[in-house]
Structure formats: structure tokens, C-alpha cells
């Protein structure tokens, strides 16, 4: 038996505000990417996308700030007074802020549209990639495998597209089906990778399955269901993968905080 | 430039937690979070038993996973290789808490991260950390690894066995455990009996 | 428009500025360029010497004060007790001084209320003293001065369990540290060596090569210096054997663990004596020179073979033999270090006799590597008229007066046992029955009546019968809230106390200086004792009125002064630790009737006790029940530290150690909660199961001191379970008066609910 005097600090460190952030940042990053594509294609709805992206980015940053234990110390300013490109969060912060600024320029129709669009593609990709990176860098958490570097951006973009489809942007529907299938495949691959890994990975998978297996399976099922419904019920076809992606991602973030060294 | 390290002799440690309480008072660590705790693991079956009493705290890794993930540069390696943090820059993102394989970091209720800093304020003044000074079994050693005559260097040389926690992660901890009573190495969650 | 905007900015900036300049609430620091406020050591710190009171080892400490608050307590080099190190309770004592649940003002029980109901009104010190004086004089008038009992434990027990009862005229002063702790070893040691063990166990750890611990869970029992010495001996390579039904922390450091059947230690000791005698492994020269009665011992131990003992103790005969031979091989640097709490099964004095006999045969008493001879410090009393009587309260500092008092009735527990120090648990019955004479008053200073004295229902009945019950304490413990008058003492950090002298290899004297002013209306024990003493007409015994003058006068008697002590903390004197030192001065350390170490005790024979120890089996429990064993946690002291959130964070509840196979048979898993029911049908719990390989199948174990039923102690209340409430039965040791507490048995009732508690972090945040 293991006993303790005092305790290791092995509780969860990212609770529900962080889960909300992960969904919002996916929406924000995805919308910023859509804005960039709209800018490059000279889409008439560019202004709408841009404003939507700004609002989502601002909302995400508000949630991040309000959910931070340091909120009332206003220390987030240090993100922008330092240079730490090796940090996923630093990259993400700049990615989001630059995306917001570019969207603002695009919304106000100031400056070279295609240039802004080009840069916005890059900053939006940073916003989509950094959440997965934030987890995958931690080699001590067996559930946060390198596969998350693919799963999170893909599901992130999926969330944005699915939300757009729900909001009647039908032109995105074919992309939605493809992303949905890709997400489901990556989700299954994530589980398989753990199952075929070494002892620690398999034990982590058992722990994961014990706490959230059925819900994760449900999420995967919802992701798979979408392509079949795209033609006939586009609204549902958008809603299901949205829920499925949020569910699977949240489970990985929440349960993934487990660390085998703890007790 | 010294290279500070700490060694704890597990053959001597009785898990009394004097170090843990001394640390709490010295560093004003609030109740609810800990810089230093004691893990005791029972090994074996009756009557062939042993117990490993192991204090755990920040290991001041030479290759710390917590430093690169910090987005504001608040986490850094300071003088003597001590892994430190500058509270005023902390945004409470908990990336460093996520990165630490040893549960050493915690969120202080005031909204910044805390962890053992090897009592940097004492080390700067030429003293040893509070935990080292108070240990009644004299099982803790602290000093400069680059000085072959420092107490920690001597202890490392003379120990029957030297282990670190989770060496496979490549963190290169500078808190060494000497003479663990468990025959196969430091007790972990998956370790089973060896009598 | 513009103006309003400017004003708004100005106002909000001012507000932000005011908040950041306040430096108050840590959570709100709206200035990202300024970090949190610096810690205590960044500001001006002053140091004060004191003596820790968080257990009874009483290490000399240095107290660091900053901003008018105690911030840290450390040991200091130059103090032979702490040597610069400190145990967790010593460090954690600060939280007790700043505990918002502390007793703050004198309380008088509401008229018409029942004892234990908890209805009190606040009173001034004057009013409280008047109440007590009136009742005390009434008792004196009607029943005599002997009718007031005085219980005490702690540095202040010098006033309340020695001085005041002596001045007042009551022999019924008792310390739990005697008959609930050391009585058997003190009595055995007195009649064997003519010397007590008294406070600091005199083991020459620095030179010993082979140690055998009987029980004695060093490591869980964290007497600072002893732990340091023990650790150094192990580091030096000394061999260790631990005899314990449980694989204690000490056992985890041992070369051999002997998982002995509880209650059979005397048989093991007799078998060792047998081996040492029959194989002629004893120290012949030592025995010839210093002892009497070896020939009788030779005859006596012939039948106690290792095979005989093996059947009783459940240990292999060969192991018993090997240990005896190993002891002899390392003699005289082989020792059985004496433990402290030895009131186990009722025949404890005889067990301690056997224990000392093994040491004697090894020739280690008074010799390097064995027992050194401690010397008491030289420290004159403050001159005062002789006390009418000298109570024999015994305690850690040794046994009290041997003679019955003249001019007063003897203590109410006389004739129950042979020893002369009072037995606290034997003074309870006279409060109920009035035999041999009624006890109608009780003062309890720092003595937890419900967690230390066995048979709690009997204690409560006794309290109900009293005319006066005064509790002097620091926290609203359950027994305190039964008193008629509650007097709040200041904690040790807030007060002077009398000088504390320690018998040691080189004896020393420590002084306690207050670090901070007493909080609320609390007062030091010496002040309470003096004020009450004067009002009770005992003013002549308190011829001082300034306590600093009292201390200074005593110190001047040894060529020092209070001012010198203020800068040093400890004065060390010269001791004579070994026989050679005594012989060099032509002195004999053995104050026995014969002047030699008495292997055969003629005194015991004359009084109807076995002159040489015999094994008597302990009481057995009903089938399906486990013997209840208890012990210590390194972060707790008795039942007194459980309202301390820092120490409770370390160890917040006790668990029942149950053999893992037994647990499986009950269908219990580690962490399940159960009820316990003892042989008298008393239930206790819920308590958590600690399913472990580290204990035999016939007993269970729990750490003492938890399970407070004290709603005014917000941290301690209801955390863990209380072993003492299950100790309804005790076996009186008729030689020493000790109460054998380990003849209680419990059965396990699964299915208790998991308790819910307020998080400690929340309780720790409360303001004073």
C-alpha cells in the first residue's frame, strides 16, 4: 500500500473553463481560417466571417482570462512582452491576436486583401495547431500522445465547419463529411496506438476506458454518422459531429491529466 | 558557477515529515498545496517486508520539461541550476503543472504557481534548504555537484545505490535517492513484491 | 463628454492605485509589474530562545518573530536536545498559537446546567478565581484538603501537579505520564538499579553496535534527539533487531524483525536470559563486581528454553537463540534500549525487570555502548517556606516521594499497588465511591481526561460527582467543556515558564522566553498558579511577584542570570555518565537497599511479588475479536495536535491496521470504513481500514489521539476514531500502579459511512 503525509499535487489543473476554451478556440481558429480562405477567394461574405472570427477570438480570450486563477492580477500582458516561441501557449496567444488583427483589417477593408489573407492562413493554422501541441509536449501524460497533433487540429477545424453548416453555410458540407470521417479515423487510431503501446500506455488506456470509454465511443459514433446524413438532414449532419468532436476532445483533455507516477 | 543538487538517503529516512512541515512554515505554503510530501510504500508479504519512505519535491531537473512550456518566461533556470519561477509573470495557465512528471508544482490560491525552490533565499545566503537543516535523521545532503568535497558529492560517491525518479523521461533530475530499501529500485505504482 | 471620460479614467486609476498600494488581500493585485508581497524572511526578523511544548521531549528552540507574529521555529546547535534539528510537531506548533478555536477568556459553567452540556458564560479572571476559591475552601471545610485531586501534564505541571497540591495539602496529585506511561519501567529500574530512567532514556547510541527494540516504534515516535541518535547508530552500521507484532518504521530499518505474539514479550526475555546463562555468555566480571542475586537467576531461568518461548511467542526457537548469542557477541556494546510507554498488559513491572536483567547480563549498564548514568542538573529552588507535603506525582521526570505524608491522609490510591507515585486512573474511583475517602474537587492542567484515562464512562461519572472541576488548557477539548471553570492558558510561545532542567549525560538547563504577547485574555500557568495560590491563603509559598525576578534568582544560584540565558538559551553542566566516572570519585550510583544492582529483588519478595520475573499470559479475547494495539504518528502528539491544520494536512485521520488476509476474509478492501465494537459492547468509528501485510493476524492497530468529540474544535472534531473510548478495561499492575491498556479486543463491523469533512484549506484560512 502507498500512504502519504501531505499529498503530491496530482489533482486536475485544467477544469471546465479550459474545456470551454478548447471548444471556443477551435471555433475561433476555424473561423479565422475560413476568413482567410474567403479573403483569398474574394468571397462576398468575407466581412461576415471576419467579424465572426474577431468575436470568437475575443470571446475565447475572455474565457481564458476569466477562467485563469491569475485573472485579477492582469498578468496576461506578459504574454505580449516576452518572446517564447518554444511554448505552445505563447504561439497560440500570438496566433490568435494576429488573426484578430488581420480579421479586423479585412473587415474594414484596409490594405492588401490577399496578403492579409495569406498571413491569416498561417496564424489561423497556428491557432488550430497549438491546442494539440499544448498537450502532446507533455511526455509524462500517457494519454496525450503525439497523435493529438493531428486529432486536435482536424477536429478543431471540424467544429468550426460543423458550426458553420448548422448556421446554413451549405457550401462547406462536402468538407464536413471528409473531416468527420478523418476525425473518426484519427480517434480510432488514437485508441489503437495506446492499445498497442507499452505497459504504461495500455494501463492509461484502461484508465481512460474505465472513466470515459462509453462516452468516447459515442463521440466516435456521432462523428461517423455525419457523412450519411449530409445530403438529407444537413442541420443534424452538422450538429452530430460538432457534439462528437467536443465530446471526444473534452474526454481526452480531462482524463488525460492523469499521470501514472501519482497515486 | 555551482551546480546545486540534493541527495536523500532512503535507508535513513523514516518518513517523519519534519522536512515537509519545516518547508511549509519557511516558505509560507498554504494548507491545501504542498512543496514537499512523504510517500511511504509497503513492499513484500508477511513476514518478508520492507517499507520505502520517500520525500518528494521538485527535483530541479537539469533538463526541466516545465521551463520551455511557460509562455511568459516566468519559469527559468537560475543561478546554480535551480529551477525557479518569477511569480509576477505567472498567468496561471498551468502548462508547467501539466508538464511536470513529478506533481511538484501547484497553483497557489493567490493565482500563481508555486513549487520547491531549494529555499533559494537561504542558498543565496550560504545556508542549506530548510528541509536539509531540520532532518532529524540527517538523511538529506545539499551542495555543489562540481565540488568533489561537498556533502552531496561525498554522499553520492559513498552510496550503495543511487536512483532518480523516472529517468526514462530524460529530465535529468538533480534530486538523488540513495540506498532505496526496495531491491529493484525506487518504488513505483506498478512495482510488485521482491522479498 | 471629454471631461467625463477623463474623470472616469482618473477615478478608476485612483481605485486601482489604492487597491495595489493596500498590499492587503493577496488575491487582488492588479499590477502585473509587481509580484506578490515578499515572504517573512525578507523583512526584519527577531529571534527568541524558547523550549518547545508540542510534546514532552521539550527541545530547545529558536523562535523567529516578524511583524509581531511567530513565523518559524527551529532547533539550534548548542542545545543538546534539538542539536539544530526539529521534528514536525515542533515546527507546526505555530498553528496552535494562531488557532481561532483556542480558549480565549475564562469561562464559568452556566448555573443550573449539567456538566458536559457545554453551556458557559465568559467571566473575568477575578470572577473565575473567586468562584474557584469559594468552592475550594468549602471542600476543605467539609472534606479536608486531601479531597481535591490535581492532574497535570506539561511544563506547567510543576505548578499544578507538584507545587500547588504540596502547598494546599493534597497528596492526590497525579500525572498521566506515570501510571499511563512509564510507571512499570521506573518502578522496575528503581528496585533493580536504585535509579530511575526518568525523562531522557539514557542509551549510549553513539557507541552501541547491536540494538534490540521491544515495541518502541522509533520513527513513528519522534522524540527528536532519540531519532537523531538512532539514525546515527544505524548509519554507523549498528545492527538492529525489532520485536513487535507490527512491522513498524523501526522494523523497516532492522536486520531482523521478530513478529511476536502480543503480550508474550516476557517469555522471550526469559528465554534470552536462559541462553545467556546456560551458554555462559554473560559478563562474569561485571556481574561479580556490581550485582547481587545472579545465582538465584541461574536456577530460575533453567526451564525457560527457547523452545518453551517459541511455543508462546510464535517465534522460531533458533531465532531466539541466535539473537541472544548475537547480543552476547557484541556485549557490552549491545543494548536493549528502554522505551517509554510500557503499560501494556498488567504484568509490566515484571516484564521491565526481565528487560533490565538482559541488559545487566550483557554488562552494559553504566558502560559505553549500553546505558549511561544520567546526572540531574544543579539548579536551586527559589527560596520559599517548606511545602506542607511533597506529592508523589511521578511522571517522565521520575518517581516522586517514597514516604507517605505526615499530617495528611495518604493518597486515595494507596493500598491498591506497591509503588509510591500516584496512579491517575486509580484516583477516579474514589470520586464515585468515596472510598477510602471522597475526592470532591479536581484540577486538570493540560491533561486530556477522555483520551488518556481508560474507561471513559467511569471518568464521566466521576466528574458528575465533583463539587468543583477546574480545567486549565489551551483548546476546547471535550473534557475541558465539562469543567465548572475553564481557565485559558497562553501557549508556550506567549509565556515564560519555570526553568526546565534535564538529567542527561551532561545535564542542562533550558529557559523559555515569550516570543509574542498572549492573545485574547490568556495567561501563563505560573501567573494562574500564583494568583490562585494567594487567594487560597498560600501566598507565603509565592514570595516573588515578578516572574523574571524568580527566574533570575534561580539562575544566579548557579552563577548565571536571566540576561545571560536570554542570549544563550541553554546552560550545560558537567555529568558523570559512566561507572568509571563514579568510581573515580569513590561514589556508588546504585541506591538499592544492598548498594548493588539487585538481580534478585528481596524487596519484591518481602512484599509478596516474584523476586525474579515470571511469564504470565495476558488475557485472551473472545473468538472473532482482535487485540487492540495503538501507537504514535510522527506528526502528532497524543490527542493534542489534532486541531492543527498543518499537522492534520500531514496526517488527517487514523486508520485501522488490519492484516490483509484477514481483511480479505471480511470482504474488506483498503480504504473501506468500518465500525469497531469492543468486548464490552462499546462501539467506535467510523474508521478507515488500512489493509496491510505489516501486522499479525491476531491484532489490529491504530494511531492514538484522533476521534475528538469536540464541536468547538473545528478541525479536530470527528476526524478519525478514538482508541481510548474502546479501552474500557484495564489491568492494574499491582507493583507499579500502571494501567495495562492492551487487554481490549475489538470486532469489525463493515459498512460504516465514509465521513465528510470541511476541507482543511478552508479551515486554515479562518481569521483569529
What's the layout of helices and strands?
The complex is a heterotrimer of chains A (263), B (195) and C (768).
Chain A: E1 2-5, H1 16-41, H2 46-66, H3 88-107, H4 113-136, H5 148-166, H6 173-195, H7 199-229, H8 234-255
Chain B: E1 4-9, H1 18-26, E2 37-45, E3 48-56, E4 75-77, E5 83-85, H2 95-99, E6 106-108, E7 112-114, H3 120-124, H4 130-134, E8 140-144, H5 151-158, E9 162-163, E10 175-178
Parallel strand pairs in B: 1-10
Antiparallel strand pairs in B: 1-8, 2-3, 4-5, 6-7, 9-10
Chain C: H1 2-22, E1 45-51, E2 60-66, E3 69-75, H2 88-92, H3 94-97, E4 107-109, E5 120-122, H4 125-143, E6 148-152, H5 157-168, E7 173-174, H6 176-193, E8 210-214, H7 224-236, E9 239-243, E10 256-258, H8 265-278, H9 284-290, E11 291-292, H10 294-300, H11 306-313, H12 317-330, E12 334-335, H13 348-361, H14 429-433, E13 441-445, H15 449-452, H16 456-464, E14 468-473, E15 485-488, E16 500-502, E17 508-510, H17 525-535, H18 547-556, H19 562-568, E18 570-572, H20 579-584, E19 597-598, H21 602-606, E20 626-631, H22 645-650, E21 655-659, H23 660-666, E22 673-678, E23 683-692, E24 699-703, E25 731-732, E26 739-740, E27 745-750, H24 760-764
Parallel strand pairs in C: 6-7, 6-13, 8-9, 8-12, 9-10, 11-19, 13-14, 14-15, 20-24, 21-23
Antiparallel strand pairs in C: 1-2, 2-3, 4-5, 4-15, 16-17, 17-18, 20-27, 22-23, 22-27, 25-26
What is the arithmetic mean of pLDDT of chain B?
94
Main sheet: strand order of chain C: 5-4-15-14-13-6-7
**N to C succession of SSEs of chain B:** EHEEEEHEEHHEHEE
| Oligomer state of the chains in this structure | heterotrimer
Helix vs. strand class of chain C = alpha/beta
Give me the number of helical elements of chain B. Answer: 5
Q: Which of globular, elongated, flat, extended, rod-shaped describes the shape of chain B?
A: globular
Total helix count of chain C? Answer: 24
If you compute it from the alpha carbons, what radius of gyration of chain B comes out, rounded to the nearest whole angstrom?
A: 17 Å
Q: Do you know the CATH topology of the domain at 4-65 and 119-178 in chain B?
A: Alpha-Beta Plaits
Proportion of residues in β-strands of chain B: 15-25%
CATH fold type of the largest domain in chain C: Rossmann fold
Q: Provide the CATH architecture of the largest domain in chain C.
A: 3-Layer(aba) Sandwich
Largest sheet of chain B: 4 strands, mixed
The spatial strand order of the largest sheet of chain B comes to: 8-1-10-9
Beta content of chain C comes to: 15-25%
The top level CATH class name of the largest domain in chain C: Alpha Beta
Q: Globular, elongated, flat, extended or rod-shaped: what is the shape of chain C?
A: globular
Radius of gyration computed on alpha carbons of chain C: 27 Å
**CATH architect. name of the domain at 4-65 and 119-178 in chain B:** 2-Layer Sandwich
Largest interface chains and counts: B-C, 45 and 65 residues
Amino acid at each position: 500500500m502507498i500512504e502519504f503525509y501531505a499529498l503530491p499535487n496530482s489533482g486536475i489543473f485544467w477544469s471546465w473553463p479550459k474545456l470551454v476554451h478548447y471548444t471556443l478556440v477551435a471555433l475561433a481558429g476555424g473561423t479565422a481560417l475560413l476568413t482567410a480562405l474567403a479573403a483569398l477567394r474574394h468571397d462576398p461574405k468575407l466581412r461576415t466571417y471576419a467579424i465572426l472570427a474577431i468575436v470568437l477570438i475575443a470571446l475565447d480570450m475572455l474565457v481564458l482570462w476569466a477562467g485563469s486563477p491569475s485573472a485579477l492580477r492582469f498578468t496576461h500582458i506578459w504574454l505580449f512582452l516576452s518572446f517564447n516561441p518554444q511554448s505552445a501557449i505563447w504561439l497560440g496567444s500570438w496566433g490568435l491576436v494576429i488573426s484578430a488583427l488581420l480579421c479586423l483589417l479585412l473587415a474594414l477593408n484596409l490594405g492588401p486583401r490577399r496578403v492579409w489573407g495569406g498571413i491569416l492562413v498561417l496564424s489561423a493554422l497556428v491557432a488550430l495547431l497549438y491546442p494539440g501541441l499544448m498537450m502532446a509536449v507533455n511526455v509524462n501524460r500517457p494519454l496525450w500522445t503525439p497523435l493529438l497533433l493531428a486529432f486536435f487540429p482536424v477536429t478543431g477545424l471540424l467544429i468550426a465547419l460543423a458550426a458553420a453548416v448548422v448556421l446554413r453555410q451549405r457550401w462547406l458540407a462536402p468538407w464536413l463529411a471528409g473531416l468527420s470521417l478523418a476525425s473518426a479515423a484519427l480517434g480510432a487510431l488514437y485508441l489503437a496506438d495506446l492499445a498497442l503501446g507499452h505497459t504504461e500506455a495500455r494501463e492509461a488506456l484502461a484508465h481512460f476506458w474505465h472513466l470515459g470509454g462509453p462516452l468516447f465511443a459515442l463521440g466516435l459514433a456521432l462523428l461517423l454518422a455525419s457523412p450519411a446524413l449530409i445530403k438529407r438532414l444537413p442541420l443534424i449532419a452538422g450538429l452530430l459531429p460538432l457534439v462528437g468532436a467536443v465530446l471526444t476532445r473534452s474526454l481526452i483533455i480531462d482524463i488525460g491529466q492523469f499521470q501514472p507516477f501519482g497515486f | 558557477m555551482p551546480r546545486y543538487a540534493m541527495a536523500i538517503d532512503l535507508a535513513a529516512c523514516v518518513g517523519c515529515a519534519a522536512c515537509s512541515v519545516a518547508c511549509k512554515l519557511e516558505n509560507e505554503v498554504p494548507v491545501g498545496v504542498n512543496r514537499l510530501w512523504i510517500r511511504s510504500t509497503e513492499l513484500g508479504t508477511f513476514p518478508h517486508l520492507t517499507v520505502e519512505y520517500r520525500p518528494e519535491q521538485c527535483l530541479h531537473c537539469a533538463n526541466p520539461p516545465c521551463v520551455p512550456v511557460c509562455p511568459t518566461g516566468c519559469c527559468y533556470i537560475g543561478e546554480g541550476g535551480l529551477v525557479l519561477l518569477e511569480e509576477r509573470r505567472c498567468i496561471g495557465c498551468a502548462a508547467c503543472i501539466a508538464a511536470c512528471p513529478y506533481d511538484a508544482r501547484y497553483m497557489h490560491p493567490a493565482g500563481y504557481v508555486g513549487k520547491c525552490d531549494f529555499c533559494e533565499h537561504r542558498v543565496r545566503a550560504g545556508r542549506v534548504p530548510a528541509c536539509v537543516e531540520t532532518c532529524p535523521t540527517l538523511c538529506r545532503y545539499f551542495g555543489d555537484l562540481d565540488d568533489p568535497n561537498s556533502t552531496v558529492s561525498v554522499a553520492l560517491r559513498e552510496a550503495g545505490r543511487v536512483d532518480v525518479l523516472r529517468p526514462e523521461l530524460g529530465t535529468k533530475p538533480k534530486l538523488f535517492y540513495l540506498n532505496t530499501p526496495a531491491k529493484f529500485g525506487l518504488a513505483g505504482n506498478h512495482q510488485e513484491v521482491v522479498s | 463628454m471629454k471631461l467625463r471620460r477623463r474623470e472616469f479614467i482618473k477615478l478608476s486609476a485612483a481605485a486601482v492605485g489604492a487597491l495595489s498600494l493596500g498590499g492587503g488581500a493577496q488575491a487582488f493585485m492588479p499590477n502585473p509589474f509587481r509580484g506578490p508581497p515578499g515572504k517573512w524572511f525578507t523583512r526584519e526578523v527577531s529571534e527568541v530562545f524558547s523550549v518547545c511544548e508540542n510534546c514532552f521531549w521539550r527541545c530547545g528552540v529558536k523562535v523567529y518573530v516578524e511583524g509581531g507574529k511567530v513565523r518559524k521555529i527551529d532547533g539550534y546547535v548548542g542545545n543538546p536536545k534539538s542539536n539544530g534539528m526539529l521534528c514536525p510537531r515542533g515546527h507546526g506548533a505555530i498553528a496552535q498559537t494562531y488557532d481561532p478555536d483556542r480558549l480565549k477568556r475564562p469561562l464559568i459553567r452556566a448555573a443550573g446546567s449539567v456538566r458536559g452540556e457545554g453551556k458557559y458564560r465568559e467571566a473575568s479572571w477575578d470572577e473565575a478565581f473567586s468562584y474557584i476559591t469559594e468552592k475550594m475552601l468549602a471542600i476543605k471545610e467539609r472534606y479536608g484538603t486531601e479531597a481535591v485531586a490535581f492532574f497535570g501534564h506539561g511544563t506547567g505541571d510543576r505548578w499544578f501537579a507538584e507545587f500547588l497540591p504540596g502547598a494546599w495539602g493534597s497528596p492526590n496529585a497525579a500525572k498521566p505520564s506515570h501510571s499511563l506511561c512509564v510507571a512499570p519501567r521506573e518502578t522496575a529500574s528503581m528496585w533493580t538499579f536504585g535509579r530511575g530512567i526518568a525523562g531522557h532514556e539514557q542509551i549510549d547510541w553513539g557507541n552501541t553496535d547491536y540494538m534490540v527494540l521491544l515495541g518502541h516504534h522509533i520513527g513513528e515516535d519522534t522524540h527528536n534527539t532519540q531519532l537523531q541518535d538512532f539514525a546515527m547508530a544505524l548509519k554507523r552500521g549498528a545492527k538492529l533487531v525489532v520485536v513487535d507484532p507490527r512491522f513498524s518504521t523501526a522494523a523497516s530499518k532492522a536486520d531482523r524483525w521478530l513478529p511476536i505474539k502480543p503480550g508474550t514479550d516476557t517469555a522471550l526475555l526469559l528465554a534470552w536470559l536462559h541462553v545467556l546463562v546456560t551458554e555462559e555468555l554473560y559478563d562474569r566480571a561485571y556481574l561479580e563486581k556490581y550485582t547481587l542475586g545472579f545465582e538465584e537467576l541461574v536456577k530460575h531461568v533453567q526451564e525457560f528454553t527457547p523452545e518453551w518461548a517459541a511455543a508462546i511467542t510464535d517465534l522460531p526457537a533458533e531465532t531466539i537463540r541466535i539473537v541472544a548469542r548475537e547480543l552476547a557477541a557484541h556485549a557490552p556494546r549491545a543494548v536493549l534500549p528502554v522505551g517509554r510507554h510500557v503499560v501494556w498488559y498488567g504484568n509490566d513491572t515484571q516484564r521491565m525487570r526481565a528487560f533490565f536483567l538482559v541488559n545487566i547480563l550483557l554488562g552494559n549498564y553504566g558502560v559505553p555502548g549500553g546505558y549511561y548514568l544520567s546526572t540531574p542538573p544543579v539548579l536551586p529552588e527559589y527560596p520559599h517556606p517548606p511545602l506542607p507535603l511533597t506529592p508523589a506525582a511521578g511522571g517522565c521526570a521520575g518517581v516522586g516521594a517514597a514516604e507517605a505524608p505526615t499530617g495528611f491522609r495518604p493518597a486515595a490510591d494507596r493500598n491498591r499497588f506497591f509503588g509510591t507515585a500516584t496512579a491517575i486512573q486509580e484516583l477516579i474511583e474514589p470520586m464515585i465511591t468515596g472510598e477510602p475517602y471522597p475526592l470532591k474537587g479536581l484540577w486538570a492542567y493540560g491533561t486530556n481526561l477522555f483520551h488518556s484515562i481508560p474507561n471513559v464512562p467511569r471518568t464521566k461519572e466521576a466528574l458528575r460527582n465533583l463539587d468543583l472541576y477546574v480545567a486549565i488548557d489551551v483548546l476546547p477539548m471535550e473534557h475541558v467543556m465539562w469543567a465548572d471553570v475553564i481557565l485559558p492558558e497562553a501557549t508556550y510561545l506567549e509565556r515564560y515558564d519555570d526553568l526546565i532542567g534535564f538529567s542527561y549525560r551532561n545535564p542542562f538547563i533550558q529557559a523559555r522566553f515569550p516570543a509574542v504577547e498572549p492573545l485574547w485574555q490568556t495567561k501563563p500557568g505560573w501567573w494562574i498558579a500564583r494568583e490562585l495560590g494567594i487567594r487560597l491563603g498560600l501566598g507565603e509559598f509565592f514570595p516573588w511577584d515578578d516572574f523574571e525576578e524568580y527566574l533570575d534568582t534561580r539562575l544566579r544560584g548557579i552563577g548565571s542570570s536571566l540576561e545571560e540565558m536570554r542570549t544563550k538559551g541553554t546552560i550545560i553542566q558537567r555529568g558523570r555518565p559512566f561507572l568509571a566516572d563514579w568510581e573515580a570519585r569513590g561514589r556508588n550510583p546504585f541506591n538499592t537497599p544492598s548498594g548493588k544492582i539487585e538481580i534478585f529483588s528481596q524487596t519484591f519478595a518481602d512484599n509478596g511479588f516474584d523476586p525474579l520475573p515470571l511469564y504470565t499470559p495476558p488475557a485472551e479475547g473472545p473468538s472473532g475479536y482482535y487485540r487492540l494495539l495503538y501507537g504514535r504518528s510522527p506528526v502528532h502528539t497524543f490527542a493534542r495536535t489534532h486541531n492543527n491544520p498543518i499537522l492534520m494536512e500531514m496526517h488527517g485521520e487514523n486508520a485501522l491496521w488490519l492484516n490483509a488476509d484477514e481483511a480479505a476474509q471480511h470482504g474488506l478492501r483498503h480504504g473501506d470504513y468500518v465500525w469497531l465494537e469492543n468486548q464490552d459492547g462499546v462501539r467506535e468509528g467510523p474508521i478507515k481500514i488500512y489493509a496491510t501485510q505489516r501486522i499479525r493476524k491476531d491484532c489490529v492497530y491504530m494511531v492514538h489521539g484522533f476521534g475528538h468529540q469536540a464541536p468547538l474544535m473545528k478541525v479536530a472534531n470527528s476526524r478519525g476514531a478514538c482508541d481510548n473510548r474502546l479501552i474500557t478495561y484495564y489491568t492494574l499492575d499491582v507493583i507499579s500502579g500502571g494501567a495495562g491498556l492492551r487487554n481490549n479486543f475489538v470486532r469489525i463491523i463493515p459498512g460504516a459511512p465514509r465521513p465528510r469533512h470541511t476541507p482543511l484549506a478552508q479551515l486554515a484560512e479562518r481569521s483569529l
